[in-house]
Structure formats: structure tokens, C-alpha cells
């Protein structure tokens, strides 16, 4: 009887232990399921929705949103992409830029196809290395760089970006602008990159190639660009490529110089006429004119040849664009203005930039930057003796984004 009692006690005890162990395993499995569910719900709740039709309503919303998603780690869902354009949705250039950003951050990209009006990007870790973007069109390589450069700056090492398409395209900065105006301004933020133009290409054929080498930084420096100073020199290039006659380049250059001289008498000007025979593909003509100031500010005006438009008119258009951008006595032109917004938003500290009229592109970039970062922008009208009705100050308390790899 005693042995039976002992055996019964041990059996009962063993059953209790097994039951307790089973309960713990069940509770553990439940906790894991709850944890996974909680993470998934959190990720879904943290997806930032961006209306792609607001304000400028074009490709810039995609570029700024994707870059900031990559850097901040915030998942984004962009809807109504390019809703106001004649061909809404993603075009090859936009798709290629999104894929490049996703590749840089090992992200997950949904809805990425030509014509899509809605995409989602879930970013991962930004990594260095070699990355290529090729829209297989004459889409601007400079716009591809606008989307990818901020991401590469926060990578875990140097990156090489091979960007293919058009180097000198309409409705986008020319590659010469990126090298001569955008690049030195980026260096003020602490961003350093090299740009090797391997092959120039033009609309409609495309096929150009630029290799950009980007060095990462720990954090971006704020910039103060509030003193324009005096214009010290003006230079540039007027070019023809392919079968177009060299005379077109000379006519563009001469017309540009005459236009500038009518307003600024004593400025050094050097705009050589060039025939692009090597390292270029396609037929095109165009001009870019750059002005530098005594305080290191850089401005530009540019134009590309169009069917039925005289070369002299192209040269005059570029010169008038340059003059328009120096009359307000600001420190950046209308095209650099919106490109610096994302870097102001990410910098650690307060940036101030004096400029001309605030463009819709700039307002759009500010809208997206404030939505995806903790940056705060203010725009005030300048009222000093050097300003006019078109002079403004853009100020930003940056979010102080830090490179976790450095």
C-alpha cells in the first residue's frame, strides 16, 4: 500500500510538472505571436502616407520622400503619383530612381512599375558599394543623383553610383550645373562627392553615363549663406554635339555675352564655344552660364536648343535666366534653392539661406521634409538695404540626422 501511494504521488507530481512545462511553452508561444503581431501592427501604424498630387505634384515628391524614408527608416506610401501631369504615374526615370534608393537601403518596394500611381517603400539598412540606375531613356542623370545622394551620404562606407540616361535634359539640371553649382554648395554641408562624366547624351536617345563616388559623413553641418557679395566672374560653355554645325555654339555664346553686358558692364565673362566630338552621343546644342561671387556663392542660367528656335535666342534665354537669379541679391538661384532643402532638414543646427522668390518646388520640398523629419522651416522677407521685394530668408532648425555607422 505504501509503495502504491508513493508511486501515485510521483505520477501526480510528474503530471503537474509536465502540465506546468506545457503551460510555460504555450505562454511562450503566445508571447512570441503577440510580439510579432505587435511589431507588425506598429510597422503598419508607422507607415507615412504621402499625397503625391499636392503642391508641385511631380517627381520631386517621390525623390525627397524616398530619400528621407531611406535615411530616417520610416516606411512611406506615396499615392496619386504625378496626378496632375499629362502622363500620370511613374515614368522610367522615376521608377529607376526609386529602385536605386531601395537598392541603397536594402528596402522593399511595392507598386514599382511604369504607370503606377501608388508605391510603398519599407527601408532597411543603408549600405555602401556599387549601385547602378538605368532608365533606358534620356531621363536626367542629375535627378537620379538628387534622389540617391542623400542616402549614400549616410551609408556605412564609400559608394559608387553609376547613373545612366541624359546628361543635359530639359526640365532638369544639366550635368554641368551639378558639377559647378550644386557640388560646391554641398561641400558647405560637409558632403563630398566626385563626378566623372564618362559619356554625355541628349534627348531623345539618351545613353549617357556618369559615375559618382560619394563619401559618407557622420552628420551634416548647417550652412549660413546670407551675404552675396560682389559678382567676380562669369564663365560657362556653349556646345554643339553630333551633326549640328559649330556656328550654333558661337552664336549662343555671343548672344549670351551681349545680354549680360547690357546689364553688368565690368564683369569678366568667358563662355567658349565647343564642339562635342568625343565622349558624347546624339545631336544637341545648349549653353550654361555660371557666375561666382566674392563670398563663394554660385549661380547659373542655362538653355538647350529646340527645333525652330534660333541659337541667338537660346543664348539670350540662358543669360536672362542668370540675370534674373542675381537681381534679388540672394545667395542661391531658383534651381539650387529647392535642392538644398533636404540637406538643411538633415543638418545638425540652424541653417540660413538668402534667396529670391520661394518656388513651388522649394515649398514642396519643405512640406515633405517637415512631414518626415523633425526639421522646422521658416521663411521671412528680407528688409535690409540690399534686398528688394523678391528677397527672402529660408531658415531651418535641422533634425540632426546621424550616421549610425560612424
TrEMBL record:
| One GO location term (cellular component) | nucleus
User: What is the enzyme's main class?
Assistant: ligase
Reactions catalysed, semicolon-separated, are: a 3'-end 3'-phospho-ribonucleotide-RNA + ATP = a 3'-end 2',3'-cyclophospho-ribonucleotide-RNA + AMP + diphosphate
Instruction: Read off the CDD domains from this record.
Output: RNA_Cyclase_Class_II
Ranges for domain RNA 3'-terminal phosphate cyclase insert come to 226-326
In terms of InterPro entries, this protein maps to: RNA3'-term_phos_cycl_insert, RNA3'_phos_cyclase_dom, RNA3'_phos_cyclase_dom_sf, RNA3'_term_phos_cyc, RNA3'_term_phos_cyc_type_1, RNA3'P_cycl/enolpyr_Trfase_a/b, RPTC_insert
Taxonomic superkingdom: Eukaryota
Q: What is its EC number?
A: 6.5.1.4
Cited SUPFAM superfamilies: EPT/RTPC-like, RNA 3'-terminal phosphate cyclase, RPTC, insert domain
Q: Where is the RNA 3'-terminal phosphate cyclase domain?
A: 55-379
Classification via Pfam families: RTC (PF01137), RTC_insert (PF05189)
Do you know which PANTHER family this protein is assigned to? Answer: RNA 3' TERMINAL PHOSPHATE CYCLASE, RNA 3'-TERMINAL PHOSPHATE CYCLASE
HAMAP family associated with the record: RTC
Regarding protein family, the annotation reads:
Belongs to the RNA 3'-terminal cyclase family. Type 1 subfamily.
Stored NCBIfam families: RNA_3prim_cycl
Q: What is this protein called?
A: RNA 3'-terminal phosphate cyclase
According to the entry, what is the taxonomic lineage of the organism?
Eukaryota, Metazoa, Chordata, Craniata, Vertebrata
Amino acid at each position: 500500500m505504501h509503495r502504491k501511494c508513493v508511486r501515485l504521488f510521483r505520477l501526480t507530481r510528474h503530471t503537474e510538472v509536465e502540465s506546468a512545462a506545457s503551460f510555460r511553452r504555450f505562454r511562450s508561444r503566445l508571447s512570441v505571436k503577440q510580439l510579432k503581431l505587435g511589431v507588425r501592427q506598429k510597422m503598419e501604424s508607422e507607415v507615412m502616407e504621402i499625397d503625391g498630387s499636392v503642391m508641385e505634384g511631380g517627381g520631386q515628391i517621390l525623390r525627397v520622400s524616398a530619400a528621407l524614408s531611406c535615411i530616417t527608416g520610416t516606411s512611406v506610401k506615396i499615392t496619386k503619383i504625378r496626378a496632375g501631369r499629362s502622363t500620370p504615374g511613374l515614368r522610367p526615370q522615376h521608377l529607376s530612381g526609386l529602385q536605386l534608393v531601395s537598392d541603397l537601403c536594402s528596402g522593399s518596394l511595392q507598386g514599382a512599375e511604369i504607370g503606377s500611381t501608388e508605391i510603398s517603400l519599407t527601408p532597411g539598412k543603408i549600405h555602401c558599394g556599387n549601385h547602378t540606375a538605368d532608365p533606358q531613356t534620356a531621363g536626367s542623370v542629375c535627378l537620379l543623383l538628387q534622389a540617391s545622394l542623400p542616402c549614400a551620404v549616410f551609408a556605412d562606407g564609400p559608394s559608387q553610383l553609376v547613373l545612366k540616361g541624359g546628361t543635359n535634359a530639359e526640365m532638369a539640371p544639366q550635368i554641368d550645373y551639378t558639377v559647378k553649382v550644386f557640388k560646391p554648395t554641398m561641400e558647405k554641408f560637409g558632403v563630398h562627392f566626385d563626378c566623372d562624366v564618362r559619356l554625355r547624351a541628349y534627348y531623345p536617345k539618351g545613353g549617357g553615363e556618369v559615375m559618382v563616388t560619394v563619401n559618407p559623413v557622420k552628420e551634416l553641418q548647417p550652412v549660413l549663406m546670407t551675404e552675396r557679395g560682389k559678382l567676380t566672374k562669369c564663365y560657362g560653355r556653349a556646345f554643339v554635339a553630333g551633326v549640328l554645325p559649330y556656328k550654333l555654339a558661337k552664336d549662343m555664346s555671343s548672344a549670351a555675352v551681349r545680354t549680360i553686358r547690357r546689364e553688368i558692364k565690368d564683369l569678366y565673362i568667358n563662355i567658349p564655344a565647343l564642339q562635342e566630338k568625343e565622349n558624347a552621343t546624339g545631336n544637341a546644342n545648349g549653353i550654361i552660364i555660371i557666375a561666382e561671387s566674392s563670398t563663394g556663392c554660385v549661380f547659373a542660367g542655362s538653355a538647350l536648343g529646340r527645333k525652330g528656335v534660333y541659337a541667338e535666342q537660346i543664348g539670350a534665354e540662358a543669360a536672362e535666366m542668370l540675370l534674373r537669379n542675381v537681381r534679388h541679391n540672394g545667395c542661391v538661384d531658383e534651381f539650387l534653392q529647392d535642392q538644398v532643402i533636404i540637406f538643411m532638414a538633415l543638418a545638425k543646427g540652424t541653417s540660413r539661406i538668402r534667396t529670391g522668390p520661394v518656388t513651388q518646388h522649394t515649398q514642396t520640398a519643405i512640406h515633405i521634409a517637415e512631414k518626415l523629419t523633425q526639421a522646422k522651416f521658416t521663411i521671412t522677407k528680407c528688409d535690409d538695404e540690399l534686398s528688394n521685394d523678391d528677397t527672402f530668408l529660408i531658415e531651418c532648425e535641422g533634425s540632426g540626422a546621424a550616421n549610425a555607422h560612424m
